[in-house]
Specification:
Elements lengths: L1 E2 L15 H11 L4 E3 L11 H12 L5 E3 L3 H4 L11 H11 L4 E5 L2 E5 L10 H15 L5 E5 L21 H13 L4 E4 L6 E5 L2 E5 L24 E7 L2 E7 L13 H4 L4
Parallel strand pairs: 1-2, 2-3, 5-6, 6-7, 7-9
Antiparallel strand pairs: 4-5, 8-9, 10-11
């Protein structure tokens, strides 16, 4: 199961009503593995209690899970107020473990990446890229799939800087080169609060929907693809094949961030 963008906090409880239907459904699913593609928290980048609360909630499902951080979990590259840095990464690792990882399942190597490091110019960015190269080189013939928070691009691989929505062109080019060289089968992400499934250059690009809230169209780039819906993605790996399908979770409330954004994320 790929879940994403839960945006939970014990202090800011705006989207908490959607946590129980999600957790209940996951427990009943008896999934082999749950992967959270980031923005687990409302503001774990600055609030330790958000991290602690969300880690305990994920533990409560009683299923194996892995997670990669989002911008609200560890900050953003070169952000004026909340840059990704060693302190924020350490906070994530205390509660959720490594911010990049791999897990072998069937004929696959699933790789989780910390997309908040892309373009950060932090030592951890260089370390992650070296680790990634090695993890793919040593995949021993397994097919490869990536899980990240931010998608590598929102329109086309050659697009310019789209700011908040995806990595800048320089780190993107490096990552896309690795996608090509190692024949990565899919890149799955969150962040956009949209459901989207696109095949491009032999690679499947998947945007996993949020289970927390929807984002109004006027708050996103004009013409952005994808469907504004809540839910999860369900993967089935069999040998070197895989299928993926969206699933709506009964009981999720379609909250809209625009209704409460100044309370949840007040302007600085």
């Amino acid at each position: 199961m790929q879940i994403s963008d839960t945006h939970l906090s014990p202090g800011k409880r705006h989207f908490l009503a959607n946590s129980q239907p999600l957790l209940d459904w996951l427990k009943e699913s008896d999934a082999d593995l749950v992967i959270h593609t980031g923005d687990v928290t409302v503001d774990g980048a600055d609030v330790e209690e958000d991290m602690r609360y969300c880690a305990e909630m994920m533990d409560s499902i009683g299923l194996p899970y892995l997670a990669v951080p989002g911008n609200h979990d560890v900050g953003e590259p070169k952000h004026l107020y909340q840059p990704v840095n060693a302190e924020r990464l350490a906070r994530w690792r205390r509660h959720f473990g490594p911010d990049w990882w791999h897990r072998d399942i069937e004929g696959w190597r699933l790789i989780g990446l910390d997309s908040m490091l892309f373009g950060s110019d932090k030592p951890a960015e260089t370390e992650q890229i070296a680790w990634l190269e090695n993890a793919m080189r040593e995949a021993s013939g397994r097919r490869i799939g990536w899980f990240t928070h931010r998608p590598l691009f929102i329109g086309e691989p050659t697009e310019g800087d789209v700011g908040y929505w995806a990595p800048t062109p320089e780190p993107r080019a490096q990552l896309l080169d690795m996608v090509r060289r190692y024949d990565v089968a899919f890149v799955a992400s969150g962040h956009l609060h949209k459901l989207y499934d696109r095949q491009l250059g032999g690679v499947r690009y998947l945007w996993g929907p949020s289970s927390g809230f929807l984002v109004e169209a006027h708050l996103q780039p004009e013409g952005m693809a994808g469907e504004a819906t809540l839910g999860v993605l369900v993967y089935d790996f069999s040998g070197s094949d895989f299928t993926v399908r969206p699933h709506e979770i009964p009981g999720l409330t379609p909250f809209f961030i625009g209704d409460v954004v100044h309370e949840v994320y007040p302007p600085r």
